[in-house]
Write a structure and sequence with these properties.
heterodimer, A: alpha+beta, 2 domains, four-stranded mixed beta sheet, two-stranded antiparallel sheet, 10 strands, 29% helix, B: mainly alpha, Formate dehydrogenase/DMSO reductase fold
Chain lengths: 302, 321
């Protein structure tokens, strides 16, 4: 029984589902992302998301800028003056005369050599401990039987509490519509055994969809392989069930620090401190009563 | 445009304040914020915070006045509590993306959502405050009025304090990281406002509890605000920036002015009224300041990244030992 040894919380069981399907999620392997944005387009098409006709941002090829009410997949483009990971081209140069080549005066500048492009498709993390769901006062945000987090648009009253609660800056309110929107992990498609639109459209399998435990195993093997091949920057993000949000349902393989991609380096679900917050508020309320009693007891000249 | 899109900024040490987090380089994605900024609007939400505090503490002032036979001060407290309570509810509803769906707030009660708890609190509190105010004005049904006054005094402190939890239960650094002190700041600010209202509107012969409450409020608010800033470390910078700094400073100056005026001018009706206005304005300014500090800390990625990096560094350091 793997479940007994695993520390991971099963969010669907925690939410009260009995006999539910396995927890589903995304493993986004950014090392094979080519920045084609097919995921962004497929997501928009399938979910009928309105355009966000912003101007060009000047941020490399990124003109969606970040996740929001109308962007549920966002491809980040990062241009860095860092060397690419070493790759063995498999070509033998032993009979080429390097000095003769150099005499021709053709050279590649050092700056151009030291350049790499990071591309990463960001998405809602479907946290094990989801702050948006915790703080939603209407019950509009709910946990599905797949362990994902979804907004019920017929319930949401646009209070906006989920927006600053999310430690990743995912969910947002649509200005013209007044309600909160975010990735549903294609709840409708999952219900009929289909994979989410973004994963379906991804041509390089950078976006992988499947049962979360399988994805975690696969990701662990992938990051090991990359490191063994000399890509020492490779790391997993959101895969650890012991992190501040209990692990992400959608996690990533990154090639640099998370904040380089606009991700928080150590996210914590805000409600982790909630009992302490309520205790403090309770103490303050009692102090208010004590203060009022004192105000009358102290009296005064008038 | 530089090819280098990873902004690396060096934090400058300012005015010799000792930050909890040492100067650190940090990376970001084109300087874009990590979290999404609150979509809450001005004046709805800061006004809501201010009015909730004014209402809650006014109810306490009213109950105390009834118990000690200060009818006029009691009336001011009850009318103030009801008026502020209703207006705060209006602010809450108006700020919704779908105001017609306000009642969806009452589908469920969730303790993990301070907004849910607050909606239920207000739904109980405002009618009670209304009955308390109506019975005082009309002089009818005094027993029911006394019960309603007691009930609103019971819920009032919760109405005043919970708004701090509302702000702190977010990923906004200037709000979340201040969760230990924020309820005390807010209750103090509420006492400042309710005391101010008493000074403004009650007859001078019954004023002293209002003055005392205001003075206690100012003391608590200023002391806890100071403590909060110390604990916040580098995040406290948000309170020293832009609009937040202006409102916070104005709040502190008006608090001091109102407190001094309330004591020095205690025999002068006009001086008391002016002090009351200053104290009400001080309370509002503090809430506006806290609100804007949160907005500022959500818009600049450094407030999210630097403390989190520091946390990771400390954790790794702990492991090495």
């Amino acid at each position: 029984m793997a479940r007994l040894t695993e520390k991971t919380v099963d969010p669907a069981s925690e939410a009260g589902y009995v006999d539910h399907p396995r927890r589903m999620g995304f493993f986004t392997d950014t090392s094979v992302c080519i920045g084609c944005k097919a995921c962004e387009v497929a997501c928009k098409e399938w979910n009928a998301i309105p355009e966000d006709s912003g101007p060009l941002t000047g941020m490399s090829y990124d003109n969606t800028a970040g996740l929001g009410a109308n962007t549920w997949r966002h491809v980040a483009f990062i241009e860095q003056r860092k060397p690419m990971a070493y790759q063995e081209p498999g070509v033998d140069h032993r009979d080429i005369d390097g000095l003769a080549l150099a005499e021709q005066g053709f050279s590649v500048s050092e700056a151009a050599e030291e350049f790499r492009w990071l591309m990463a498709s960001d998405v809602c993390k479907h946290c094990t401990h989801a702050a948006c769901l915790d703080v939603c006062p209407t019950g509009s945000l709910f946990r599905t039987e797949f362990g994902t987090v979804v907004v019920q648009e017929d319930i949401c009253n646009g209070c906006g509490y989920c927006v600053p609660a999310c430690p990743y800056g995912v969910i947002d309110r649509r200005a013209d519509d007044g309600r909160a929107w975010k990735c549903t992990l294609c709840y409708d498609r999952l219900g009929v055994g289909q994979e989410p639109a973004c994963a379906k459209a991804c041509p390089t399998e950078s976006i992988q969809f499947g049962p979360l435990d399988e994805l975690r195993e696969r990701a662990a093997r992938r990051v090991e392989q990359l490191r063994a091949d000399g890509v020492t920057d490779a790391r997993l993000y959101g895969a650890d069930p012991d992190d501040g949000v209990g692990g992400d349902g959608a996690f990533f393989l990154l090639l640099d620090e998370p904040e380089v991609y606009g991700l928080p380096p150590d996210p914590v679900v805000t409600t982790r401190d909630l009992s302490a917050m309520w205790r403090r508020a309770g103490a303050a309320a009692l102090l208010a009563v004590a203060g009022a009693v004192a105000a009358f007891a102290l009296g005064g000249s008038r | 445009m530089s090819v280098l899109n990873v902004t690396r900024k060096r934090r400058r040490g300012r005015r010799g304040e000792q930050p909890m987090v040492p100067d650190a380089e940090f990376s970001s994605y084109y300087g874009k914020p990590v979290i999404n900024s609150p979509v809450w609007s001005v004046p709805d939400v800061p006004g809501y915070l201010f009015l909730g505090g004014l209402a809650g503490l006014s109810s306490l002032l009213a109950a105390g006045s009834d118990l000690t036979g200060r009818d006029a001060l009691g009336k001011v407290g009850k009318l103030g509590a009801f008026g502020a309570g209703v207006l705060s509810l209006v602010g809450l509803v108006h700020d919704l993306g779908r105001p017609m769906r306000f009642l969806h707030m009452l589908r469920v009660l969730k303790v993990t959502s301070p907004m849910s708890v607050g909606s239920w609190l207000l739904s109980g509190y405002v009618p009670l405050a209304g009955v308390a105010a109506a019975t005082t004005v009309t002089g009818r049904l005094p027993r029911i009025g006394a019960l309603a006054t007691a009930g609103s005094a019971l819920l009032g402190p919760a109405v005043a304090a919970y708004t701090a939890t509302l702000l702190s239960d977010t990923a906004v650094p200037a709000w979340h990281d201040g969760y230990r002190e924020m309820p005390f700041v807010f209750v103090g600010s509420g006492a400042t406002a309710a005391g101010g209202l008493g000074l403004l509107a009650a007859p001078i012969a019954q004023m002293s509890p209002a003055r005392n409450l205001a003075l206690l409020g100012v003391g608590l608010e200023l002391a806890m605000f100071r403590r909060m800033r110390t604990r916040l470390g580098m995040v406290a910078e948000a309170y020293d920036t832009g609009k937040a700094a202006k409102y916070v400073k104005a709040g502190q100056a008006l608090s001091a002015l109102g407190a001094v005026g309330a004591v020095v001018g205690r025999r002068n009706r006009i001086a008391c009224a002016l002090s009351g206005v200053a104290l009400l304005a001080a309370s509002a300014a503090t809430r506006w300041g806290v609100f804007h500090a949160g907005m500022i800390s959500s818009e600049d990625p450094k407030y999210t990244v630097v403390p989190q990096r520091e946390r990771i560094r400390k954790r790794r350091g702990d492991k090495e030992f």
